[in-house]
Design a protein that fits this description.
Number of strands: 8
Structural class: alpha+beta
Low-confidence stretches: 7-44, 122-129, 213-219
Strand content: 15-25%
Largest sheet: 8 strands, mixed
Number of helices: 7
Radius of gyration: 19 Å
Distance between the termini: 25 Å
Order of helices and strands: EEHHHEEHEHHEHEE
C-alpha cells in the first residue's frame, strides 16, 4: 500500500527561507523593468484555512465528507466518485484503527484539505507496503515509537502547484503539524517510483530520499522511501 498522496504533476522547487530579505536603501532598490508583470504575492502567511485534529469518532462521523473531498480534488471525473473514492475510504478506515493514528483537517467555510498518518512500531510488519522495502537501518535512526508514517495528504491543486516551498503552504502546514502533534523525530512515506509528479511534489514540500541503505536489494522496487524532518 502506498501512501494516499493526492499529488498531480507538480514541479519540484528548492526550499527557501520564509524570512523576508533585507530591503535595500531607496537609492539601491532595483527599478522594475517596464512591461514586466509584478510577481503574484499569493496568500498572506498563515492566513486562510484553520487546521485542527479529529478524534477517531469524529473521523467516523465525517468519513463521507472526507471521501467527497478526495473525489473533488482528484479531478478523476465519475471514476473518482466511485472506485477511487471507495478505495480511499477503505484505506482511511483501516489506518484509523492503527495505534497512534492522527488526522488533521483544514477548513475555512468548508473542508479544504486533510492529512493523516500513524506512529510506526520499532519491529515487525508495521505498515503493509513498507514490508520488504525498508531495512532496520531506517528504524535505528530514530528512537522507538518516534517514527511517524504520513499515509495521506489531500490538498487542492493550488496547494500542489503554487508556493510549495513556503512555510505557509497548506500541505507543509499539515505535514508539519502531524509530526509536531505526535512528537515524532522523523516522518516517513512511500511514493510510487513510476509517479514522477508525486515524487517531485513531495520533494518540493521538503521530503528527501531515505537513502539507498533503506531499500532492499529485491528487484524491482516499485517504491521510493522518503523522509521528512520535523519543522520542514
Amino acid at each position: 500500500m502506498t501512501a494516499h498522496m493526492l499529488l498531480p504533476t507538480i514541479p519540484a522547487a528548492p526550499t527557501t527561507s520564509d524570512l523576508p530579505a533585507s530591503r535595500p536603501a531607496p537609492s539601491m532598490r532595483r527599478r522594475r523593468t517596464p512591461g514586466r508583470p509584478k510577481r503574484e504575492q499569493g496568500s498572506s502567511p498563515y492566513e486562510g484555512e484553520r487546521i485542527h485534529p479529529l478524534t477517531r469518532g469524529q473521523v467516523g462521523d465525517r468519513l463521507q465528507e472526507l471521501g467527497d473531498l478526495y473525489a473533488e480534488v482528484s479531478g478523476g471525473g465519475p471514476w473518482a466518485w466511485n472506485q477511487a473514492r471507495a478505495a480511499f475510504l477503505r484505506h482511511l478506515s483501516a489506518d484509523a484503527r492503527r495505534p497512534g493514528f492522527s488526522l488533521l483537517i483544514a477548513e475555512s467555510t468548508a473542508l479544504t484539505g486533510c492529512a493523516y498518518g500513524f506512529r510506526a512500531g520499532g519491529a515487525g510488519p508495521w505498515w503493509a507496503g513498507f514490508d520488504g522495502h525498508v531495512r532496520g537501518s531506517l528504524l535505528r535512526r530514530v528512537a522507538p515509537g518516534r517514527l511517524f508514517v504520513v499515509a495521506g495528504i489531500v490538498v487542492p491543486s493550488r496547494v500542489r502547484r503554487e508556493y510549495q516551498d513556503r512555510a505557509w503552504n497548506l500541505a507543509r502546514r499539515l505535514q508539519r503539524r502531524l509530526l509536531a502533534d505526535d512528537g515524532a523525530a522523523l516522518g516517513v512515506t512511500l511514493a510510487d517510483s513510476r509517479d514522477d509528479g508525486a515524487v517531485e511534489t513531495l520533494w518540493s514540500w521538503g521530503w528527501r530520499s531515505a537513502g539507498d541503505d533503506t531499500l532492499t536489494a529485491l528487484p524491482p522496487c516499485p517504491f521510493r522511501v522518503l523522509v521528512l524532518a520535523p519543522g520542514t
